[in-house]
Amino acid sequence: MAGGRADDEGGGAKVSRRALLLGGVQVAGLGVLFGRLYTLQIVDADQYTTLSDENRINYQPIAPLRGRIYERSGLLVASNRANLKVIIVPEAAGDVRGTLDRISRIAEVSEENRARVLRRASRQRAFVPVMVMEHLTWAEFAKLNAQAPSFPGVFPEAASVREYHFGPELAHVVGYVGGVDRWEADDERLLQMRDFEIGKDGVERSYDRRLRGTPGVRRVEVNAGGRIIRELDRTPPGNGENIFLSVDLELQRFALERLGGETAATVVMDVRTGEVLVMASTPSFDSSQFVGGISHAHWRALLAHPGKPLLNRAVEGQYPPGSTFKMVVALAALESGVISTKERIRCTGRYHLGNASYGCWKRSGHGKVNMHDGIQRSCDYYFYEVARRVGIDRIAKMARKLGMGGLEDLDYSDAKPGIIPSVGWKLATLGEPWYPGETLIAGIGQGYVLATPMQLCVYAARIANGGRAVQPRLVRAIGDEPTYPEEWPDLGIAPESLAFVRDAMDSVVNRGGTAARSRIDVNGMTMAGKTGTSQVASLAVARASSQRNGGEVERRYRDHALFVAFAPVEEPRYAISVVVEHGGGGSRAAAPVAKDIMTRVLERDLPADAAPDPDEHANPLPHWPETRWPETGNG
Amino acid sequence: MADSWRSEKNFALPSKVLRLNWIAVLVIAAIGALGVVMLYSVAGGTLEGWAERQIWRLGAGLVLLLVIALVDLRVWLAASFPIYAVVLALLVAVPYFGTSAGGARRWLEFGGGIQLQPSELMKVSLVMALGAYFHYCADGKISKPLYLIVPLVLVAVPAALIVKQPDLGTAALILVVGLAVIFQAGVHWAYFVAGGIAVCSALPFLWHTLRDYQKERIYTFLDPERDPLGAGYHILQSKIAVGSGGLEGKGLMGGTQSQLNFLPEKHTDFIFTTLAEELGLIGASGLLGLYALLLAFGVYTAWRAESRFGQLVAGGVTFMFFLYIFINVAMVTGLVPVVGVPLPLVSYGGTALLTLMAGLGLVLNVALHRSMPLERGGSGGGGSIALPKWPVRK
Q1: Mean pLDDT throughout A441-468?
Q2: Interchain CB contact of B248 with A (< 8 Å)
Q3: Which comes out higher in pLDDT, residue A287 or A8?
């Protein structure tokens, strides 16, 4: 019993000890918890604060307004129209059907829209907005806005949509906008916005970055479900810059009318500044059709049209320049000194080189011809001989100087480079050596040589402006910042050589040359130019076609007609190029067109350097109320 | 001095009310009040709903606590086995009559909207039953294998029933609390070492008996970033909430993680997360401090109690209380897998709150009856070696 008693005492002490031991475990446990809290809340607090903010804060871009585009005389060409929509948030509306009925009392909701809204509302989360309809009238929109407080869950919204005011005339110049394609989406948040549109063609595309503007940002607090709780703050968007075209609508319209039903292109530019006053290509299309997405039928019709209206021939059409190329050869010859302007060459009508022979267009021959005569009468024989003496590489070098073979600074995307062949070029692209006969062919702008009407116009302009490396400018100013320098750099061609060529071109038009019938005289101002006729098919093919077609060559085998010119002859201001596809001879089909257009240009007598003033062109669009409903967050 | 404490007069009701450890009651009320504040906050600044009902429950709980504390300890000793038997019977009834929620059957519904979770009641009942057993068991015998069968059965049967519900968290808690009482009773430590080794080697087999969602929870615990929007989401969001609270917190109702619904179960199991986010380390460690005071009081009571039953009940209930705190806080801070254990006296919920109040009432009771001599069987007086109620052949 006594032992038991002792055991009991010992047991009691042991139990007390163990109670303390368990107490120790508890102290340790609380210590661990405190340590954990200290780590999370003090040591790693910054990291978790960041994560917490990332959780709750959502950044939503606000789309900027796209910059407007004006033509030369200040007419608004491309602007933004409010697309007035009404949106419903099912959660806030509660009774979606009833709400649609109430909207219908102000603006009729079609059965189709109704069905779509109800379907969407039942499928997605209740706080995700659904668009009821768009293109509301101002009256409907204003009424809805006024009644919005008593329409829970109904939000009138004003989005912006592009509008083209002179679609048919300026489609090729301005281009159009469209939804962002996957391959176009860069890092910019803007492009990831729903319904955002970017330039797809023309100036809209080449100046897209400037027109686009910068997005604003709305910081909103969202909950775990992605629902917006409140707006924290916002940075307004920076709207796109306004752009002022060099193109003059009246001249452009005239040029398009003058080209008429032909597949043709013409470019007119200011030889000193590079401003492109006209860039016309026929047939054309209406860029307004692209607003809000072109319909399938329209798109198919454009693609199926035999004249390829989407093709801007002024920069995408590549043609052998034919005789218009002869000034390149002449300048290359004068600069390298292989021939003087005085030296006469006897044209027999057929030039022999090795075993081959090359005909002049005048089979009976021109007789004795100097350089002036060679250009004025467009003697092929003379230029065969000169080209042979100069060599292809020096011709190519001069052609590039004058703007052919690719304009590195053209403010138009999708421009084609053309081809200026050389020994190295042929070896690199065709893997074949250069044959001497090919130099002769290139000397009259045939063979491999290809140029676009834009390049031909630049070529004429550089001759006319005394050898300045002028570049074409479809846009004369972005905001109030001009796009061209005060003076373009010098190309390093001797002024006498250029003066000689200009004089020869003068005689082409005004002293009984190949374009004598296209002489103009506006207020004592005259035009100087050069005709070109480029062969499309070989003589044999043309002859065969003629036999099939009852004595007339089928249109597709007919020669292209070309003409390059500048005016006035003294102190030139404008250069022009005209290409009429399958138009026949340049003097017959192209020069008269150039004459008429240039006459108009000279008559219009545009102010030289009228700096564009954006303030003059106040926004003619009404201001619409800002969007009031929150866009979707994560969803 | 000691003798004077032993006089019957000290155990008269007015004397007991005076001697009751009112400071401990105040600490309990303070913890409960902090819980109400947090429920007010997670409800978006309203007493309606959670906070209001929690106040009523706390009030009821405090009354229960005081009643239990003031009843004679001998009554509880005598009632231990019957209570255990009733709760075990309820537990057995759960699979047949219980209501299921979330794939588990844990609740018994009685008329008048009264719901009971027998697994909760079992926690305190088990501590009492074990305390009573070891109270009556002679000290010299308790480490003998034969004498360990009864306590192990007392622990294993309810644990097994709760695993079946399935409610792994509560079962584990029951098991650990039971083992803690057995340990405190003085059973030789070698058993615990051997048991530990046995459990470790059995783990691979136990793994296969787990349900998929239970395995998933453990995977998720091991690597919360594995699937941040799936199972790991809760742990991650909870850690973000706690961490972003910093030292001072985001202010009441200013916890973005809680208020914007990034947290699950923010009024029940994850309420500590909201507290840590909104009141910061200061608030969180303040609550831990209050808990520490209560635990210290419990451990002191267990240490100083003169009856074996009192020692074991106080120690067991205190340890259980500690486990609740530890598992809950460790869970929401990503230290242990997500198991459904509420934060004692703070989380919204009825049964758990009442169980804990009852348990704390017992601790207060033991403290009040610290010096009361309790019969250890036989004819009374000194401690008897043999257990009359548990005849053992030699």
Answers
A1: 92
A2: no
A3: A287
